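Lecture 7 notes: from sequence to structure.

We start with a single chain of 424 residues. Read the sequence below before looking at the structure.
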Amino acid sequence: MNQVSLAWSAATGATSYLINRGGSPIGQTSAISYLDTTVTANTAYCYSITASNSVGFSTPSATVCTNTPAVTTPVVPSQPQNLAVIPAATNQINLTWSASTGATGYVVKRGGSTVVMTSSTNYSDTGLASDTSYCYSITASNNAGLSSPSATVCTNTLAVTVPAFVLDGAFDYPGYLLGSNSTMVLYAALRGTVLYVATESPGESGPNDIFIFVTDQLSGSATNAAPWAKAGLVAVSTNKPYLAAESQDSYISWYQNGIQTNYGCAKSTTTNGAMEGTINLMAAFGYMPTNIYLCAAAYVTTNGGALVGRCPAGTGPNINPGGFLEIPTVALNDSNGSGVFNLLDPARGFVVLGASLTNAAGFTLDWASMPGQGYQVIYRNALTNPWADLAGASNTAGPLQLIMSYTDPLPTNAARFYGIKLAP
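Now the structure, written as tokens:
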């Protein structure tokens, strides 16, 4: 700041006042206030006031010192994080994100074009087409400028008619399989805010009780007691939801906060079928998580029974944080109930997000990807030619990777047409 404001009480008989700074006069006024604008930032200054009239000068006031504030360089806000896009209706997608440090507002973009500017950390985008893919990013702003945009996240609006998940003791769709190993399988899918999970049924005369843990956050380590007095520890709080089924009878139920709930569930009477259930994530957690953590686990049916199977696979008596599958909720969306994730359906979420030509690097393709899925870039030099795999242009999306990119260093004077296909 480049000014100091002074004020004092009126002196009896005074007609004017002399302002002293550092023992030297810098100004005179008939008022009982003065604004010193000849100062510099982050500097100490000491002042006294001397009253005067036609007779002469008073003794100076007591000296008072102060520091001018330091000049601060405006800082643009931090990049918005944890963008969640939630299909809420056939024509509406709800967005939420974490607040950015220093932000006074946010720019919401859909498909690279600005939709709205808001001071909130949520927005409902309406008037959309049904069962259609839309991609969003958020940029934070303040008087210093704009942050870098958030990661782009895509989802589909709901179809006009979205069937409910079928809970009958049979796996709904093979396309919902997220993981399998020698001991267990794990299925999951999302329609709107309703999550479907499934694994093998314990049956009614099997050796193991079966659990599916569903949580929006993990403990730092396996420090919580396993449910139903089983052996070992788990890296999930006991107040988070889990689906549980007995092996020796027909019992199956969801639990939350350690209490039985009425969330939907069913199991097969034999171990050849499914144990499955649905849970509304908004109701369970109070918000829509950006990522969800899942784990199917089998314990010997007796009290104190040991952990004997899990998916994802792991070793040891405990289920540590690494024993959970972490996946973006948007990756689980099946907005029309077809049994195929949006991000794997070229008619919905499996779309090219951008294509750009740069002289320095070549031609760059960006596309929406499903975590864990492999992709191959294909090309042809003329529309009449057959497609061919582009050498070196295959890769697998990482555990949380929703966008993939590949740059083809074009040969001189080459013309190419590109596509992306799912790897087997």
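The first helix runs from residue 281 to 285. Keep this in mind for problem set 3.
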